[in-house]
Amino acid sequence: MLTLRARAGCGASILCLALALGTPAHAGDIAPADAGAGAAGQVSARPTISGHVYDDTGAALPGARITVEGTPFEASTDAQGGFTIAVSDPGQPVTLAIDYLGRPHTTRTVDPANSIEIVLPAAGQPGDIVVTGASLLDNTARALNQQRQADNTVTILSADAIGRFPDPNIAEALQRVPGIAIERDQGEGRYINVRGAPSEFSAVSVDGVQIASVDPSTRAVDLDTLPSDIVANIAVTKTLVPSQDADSISGAVNITTRSAFDRRGFALTGMAGASYNQFGDTSDYRASASVSDRFSPDRQFGVLLSGSYSKTHRRPDNVENGWVRNSAGQYLVGETFFKDYDTKRERIAGTGALEWRPADGHRLYLRGSYAQFEDDEYRDRLGIVWSDGTVRADATDTAATYDRTRINKQVRHRTQRNEIWTVVGGGENRLGAGKLSYDVSYTRSQQTYPNRNELLFRSTLRPTLSYNFANNADLPTYSLFTSNEHLQTANYGFYENTFRSNTTKNDTFSAQIRGDVPAELGSGDATLSIGGRYRERTVDADEERFRNRDASAALGRTLAGVLSDQESRNFDYDLGDRIDPAKADDYFAAARPNSPRRVSDSRIADYRVKEKVLGIFGMGKFEFGATTLIAGLRVESTDFRGDTATYNAATNVYGARTSKTGYVEFFPNLTLRQEFSPNLIGRFALTRGINRPNFVDLVPRTLVEDDGVLVVRQGNADLRPTLSNNVDAGLEYYIRPLGIVAVNAFYKDLEDYRYTVTRNGIVDGRVARLTQPINAPKGKLYGVELNWQQQFSFLPGLLGGFGVFANYTYTAGDARLAQADLTGRSVFNLPGQSKHMWNASLFYERGPVNLRVAYTKRSDYLDEINTTDRTLDLYWEGRGQLDATGSVQVTKEVNLFVEGKNLTNSAGVRYFGERQRVYEYEKFGYTIFGGVRVKL
Fold this sequence. Notes:
Layout: H1 4-22, E1 48-54, E2 65-68, E3 74-76, E4 82-86, E5 94-99, E6 106-110, E7 116-119, H2 136-149, E8 154-158, H3 159-163, H4 170-174, E9 180-185, E10 188-194, E11 204-206, E12 209-210, E13 231-237, E14 252-257, E15 267-277, E16 285-295, E17 301-314, E18 317-325, E19 331-359, E20 362-385, E21 390-391, E22 399-403, E23 406-431, E24 434-459, E25 465-468, E26 477-478, H5 480-483, E27 492-521, E28 524-548, E29 563-570, E30 573-579, H6 581-591, H7 599-605, E31 607-624, E32 627-648, E33 653-677, E34 680-691, H8 695-698, E35 702-706, E36 710-714, E37 722-735, E38 739-763, E39 766-791, E40 802-816, E41 827-828, E42 836-846, E43 849-858, E44 861-866, E45 874-876, E46 879-889, E47 894-901, E48 908-912, E49 918-923, E50 927-935
Parallel strand pairs: 1-7, 11-14, 36-39, 38-44
Antiparallel strand pairs: 1-4, 2-3, 2-5, 5-6, 8-13, 9-10, 11-12, 13-14, 15-16, 15-50, 16-17, 17-19, 18-19, 18-49, 19-20, 20-23, 21-22, 22-25, 23-24, 24-27, 25-26, 27-28, 28-31, 29-30, 31-32, 32-33, 33-34, 34-37, 35-36, 37-38, 38-39, 39-40, 40-41, 40-42, 42-43, 43-46, 44-45, 45-48, 46-47, 47-50, ...
């Protein structure tokens, strides 16, 4: 039987569908981020003419507002500068008015009998933007013009604007967007949090094709796999329309790769550079290139190829302390790990596109992309196991002395390789006054671990050691570095080796079709749009685990026999000599064949998942003068199957278990755009979204991980998807000649919010962290975004080159449990939600000189919930980062640049409950990168 909420949702859905299907709707650009279709909605029941708008270098100008003088007819240019606009008589010359932020108003009288190509001048009246070579302001204009013309709330990042920040991957580029913060790994952005929501709440697409995560533990896409220098633009849609997939509660990210039709003819761009890294005195290297051209007398055919390569070498410092609370309520450190990293990361990426546009309104295309990310890491770890000893009675919450502690030394060699493939073929055709668009795609996201090898030595010494966090919680004092028992290498003996290998393949097939039928609607225009998408995703996760604790497994190696003569230091802690990677790898190669397979863990870790999603939609877009209304409904059906192994320890019998679930959800939509003036835009939206559970959370398995801390993860086959009813409202004022002041507010009513319960327990006689995902019946997330961008062109002389980019986001929210947890808590904050996020950037651009200083900051946020002890909830401390860039245009084609990243060497900090109980303290150092850009 349907619940009251479900019945209400169905009723609203039926109403919106009736509105959409009962009345035809308008032509126009549904949304720049709508499945990567550009201005795919531009059809009209009236006579039309088509053309393109370029700048004086031959680059397309997207988002230009075009009107036919003396008529109400209006259109916008798509990503390749193309437009189709209604006219009264297609046989007569017409005068077009072109409004483009950053350039002077322009009118052109055109003859529809000829090919219509309009070139906008770079400067006209005082205050217009003067473009010299590669201009930050020119690319900001491309983004703001597309945002202004969009029907829904969307933020655009253009390629060259991304390049003006020291952001080597997509995650780091997105941290500059209002309402987006990033989660980092060793100082580098990996996941995004949009509007304070968990990273899984944002779907990511490449050229309109949704890609899956390479990480088997989450649906969130590892955006550090994708380099930022192969894209044309990134669109973040924060309010969806019915034609878009519903699985983006907080925002959908669409990454558009380059097209040969971005320019009128031949184009070649390239970049190369190198860096100096403070920590480890290492260097990074990065290079990219793109070449494209259009062929045939009327340039119908386009070909593009692009490639990117980067290699980084980092040696961050890291200290971790695992805190517990004893029966007397006292906080104690159970384990301390000093981690000395030597990490090399390599990215290889490329894109290709073949396109044919035989006539306006007709095109066929085949596009593909490939990205590979390899993280090759050696890690020396010195460990103090306090909990193996006995704490003295004089211990406090910040200092303690333990008798008979244990010391160990571990080396790990881990190689992680992520790969993402996408290929999509499709087209669009004008059929009379209507239009049909379609595509078929295949993607593969794959993660493998060729090496995940560990060798552990334990000291026979059981010393009395102490720690003190009272004076410095980040870098406390440890008596070990005075007594130096850890330097007595002769007292270490072999304890164990462990080997793991993982392969996760995520294959997705997708097909979609859409039809747009226009009609006149009194004094306005309308378009009816219907269509659907089928997506089938198969995930295969295979893991093998091996471990050997026999004395013979040492193979004659002692700790001294695998050490180098290089010093290993972590901050100011002397860890002794660094382990020699070559000697360690020789041992791993010899020991792995004889390391017994851990059959139970290897079999239970494996799973296979198949998920099928069928979505259909109907919507109408109605346009009456300055008012645009979209109303419609999307319906998505989901079928899920998960297979995994089970193990009964009492009988030593393995079995199989399958979980199945299926559901249908309705997503009504109402989107309103009101143009109070060409530069003052208001938007309002009522939408609904979904986040399906992570695959590993649904598979009924129990997985054990032991990396110094024992972690047991259990699946939950009864998990339900999280649904969100959303209200969004915003007002944007676009400043002449180039800028914006905007405010956007949002409220999300969450149903069945999914979170992970973490509690302490005992497994095989050891203290373990037990985790399992469950649903919280209710939750909410709300906030406001403020955005200000402007060049101060009104200032006299050279001062007119200054400008500002600034945004601030406030978010709040919580989730409510059906019953209180073991601490009596029934309401908790949302993981990943920072209350405050802001960016501030001061730039200067005048003639050939471009300078920029940028600071980004997010406040503290919850990482993990501990349902047995709320004082041990795990938090990330808010982190700020200062970056700077500068460039000079040497010639029209050549640009020299220098970038400084993390100039203040900001730390990454996690803590349990209170800042004094630091779990992880890590620093990465600053990076200075310099190079050259070429654009022909």
